[in-house]
Write a structure and sequence with these properties.
- β8 and β9 form a beta hairpin.
- α4 runs parallel beside α7.
- The protein has 396 residues and is of the alpha+beta class.
- The strands form seven sheets. Strands 7-4-6-5-9-8 form a six-stranded mixed beta sheet. Strands 16-13-17-21-20-18 form a six-stranded mixed beta sheet, with helices on both faces. Strands 19, 22, 23, 24, 25 and 26 form a six-stranded mixed beta sheet that branches.
- It starts with a helix and ends with a helix.
- 38% of the residues are buried.
- Bound molecules: adenosine monophosphate (AMP) and magnesium ion.
- The site of adenosine monophosphate (AMP) has 17 residues, from α4.
- Magnesium ion (MG) binds next to loops.
């Protein structure tokens, strides 16, 4: 058996990064991967401005006058530009409005009273207070987004903040998806004896699309050698990656192995993980081939832990899985040779497992917030620290 770490290492080493890029408007860039670094040509903020609604003034004037009265001479709203302040003067100012020359602090409006054209300030006042400095967020010339950044909501906001309207992104990965198994029928069709609904197709397609992949869905592929061979070849011709589920064990009805082993290279791994032992990796022509186990929880786990990092590597993205350590709300008295990924919920700061951890039980994944990782050959007592992989964060 291959350890999870070694399997991942081999996958990442074989991932050939895409280089084709295209330029898209910000509104079309969501979920894509940045092809080139983005450098800011401006300071953000571009000018010193007020962080509060209040009065702009000079603090030395305040220190000199115990009564702290200022002549109110102007009003500066966001988007306006103020005139210089003379000593003893104050300007009415609003959040985001530029600081007028001659001012070095903002008095909050809650600390001020205005009477007959004069502002009276109470409360302490220190130089620089409630001022947002030019360039404090982004200094001109700084790389704000390195190449390989996945563009999520906040990255798009930052690109907009520096005035960038278009971004160079990698073209999306084209992924073909095949669901193998004579037992499969599609939701919406009648469930006849011996059949099950094809759940992997919808789960994997959504996982792939969440990552920004363009999916060509081949639907159900019957367990027949000739058909499997033909469809795998077809899928490989038009895609970067071909992913199938089922049929990668060594049973007589597992034709994926037979279909590929004749003229393509294919590694059939037994990965020391639970769920998700059988896993195939290879190439069909110029496309990568990944064969996932048929059990839905196994295919979810192998996708999350191995396929997703591999696809991201093909996009030049290296992201570690979001994890933390929490006390186990369970025990594992008997060690097993496989690394276990228990479906758990985080309750009162503890990792609590779903009652049925079988690899076919998809309700466990729906219920869970996270995987709790029990290392291979290890025991665990309740309260021991256990590594938690936060599944919800992966969807960001
Ligand atoms: P296999 O890897 O083909 O031996 O399949 C392992 C188990 O997963 C069997 O119980 C299959 O019926 C089930 N399975 C395979 N493909 C799917 C699928 N697309 N959706 C749901 N279950 C599946
Ligand atoms: Mg099968």
């Amino acid at each position: 058996m291959l350890t999870v770490d070694l399997a991942l290492e081999q996958l990442l080493a074989a991932a050939r990064p895409l280089t084709d890029s295209l330029t898209v408007p910000l509104t079309a860039a969501r979920g894509q991967v940045l092809a080139h670094a983005v450098t800011s040509s401006i300071d953000v903020p571009a000018f010193d401005n007020s962080a509060m609604d209040g009065y702009a003034l000079h603090v030395t004037d305040f220190a000199a006058a115990p009564l702290a009265e200022f002549a109110l001479t102007q009003r500066i709203a966001a988007g306006d530009v103020g005139a210089p302040l003379a000593p003893g003067e104050a300007a009415r100012i609003f959040t985001g409005a530029p600081l007028p020359p001659g001012a070095n602090a903002i008095a909050m409006q809650e600390d001020c009273t205005v009477e007959a054209g004069a502002v009276r300030v109470s409360g302490p006042l220190r130089e620089g207070q409630h001022i947002r400095r030019s360039g404090e967020d982004v200094a001109q010339g700084t790389v704000v987004l390195p190449a390989g950044t996945r563009l999520r909501a906040t990255e798009l906001g930052l690109a907009a903040a520096i005035g960038v309207a278009e971004l160079a992104v990698l073209r999306p990965l084209r992924v073909a998806l095949l669901s193998t198994g004579n037992e499969l029928v599609e939701p919406g069709d009648a469930l006849t004896p011996g059949k099950i609904y094809n759940s992997n197709r919808y789960m994997l397609r959504a996982l792939l699309e969440d990552m920004g992949c363009v999916v060509t869905d081949y639907g159900i592929v019957a367990d027949e050698l000739e058909l499997t061979t033909r469809l795998l070849g077809e899928a490989a011709a038009g895609n970067d990656v071909v992913i199938s589920t089922g049929g990668v064990s060594v049973g007589e009805e597992d034709h994926v192995r037979a279909a590929l082993q004749t003229h393509e290279w294919l590694a059939l791994w037994k990965i020391a993980m639970k769920p998700g032992k059988p896993f195939a990796f290879g190439r069909i022509g110029d496309a990568d081939f990944i064969g996932l186990p048929g059990n839905p929880v196994s295919s979810f786990a192998t996708f999350t832990l191995l396929v997703r990092p591999f696809l991201l590597a093909r996009l030049g993205v290296s992201e570690s899985l979001p994890h933390l350590w929490l006390p186990a709300g369970f025990s594992r008295p008997k060690p097993i040779p496989r690394r276990e990924f228990l479906r758990v919920r985080i309750e009162h700061g503890h990792a609590v497992p779903y009652a049925n951890q079988s690899s076919g039980v998809l309700t466990s994944v729906v219920w869970a917030d996270a995987f709790a990782v029990v290392p291979e050959h290890s025991t665990l007592e309740e309260g021991d620290p256990v590594r938690i992989i936060q599944l919800a964060l992966l969807e960001r």
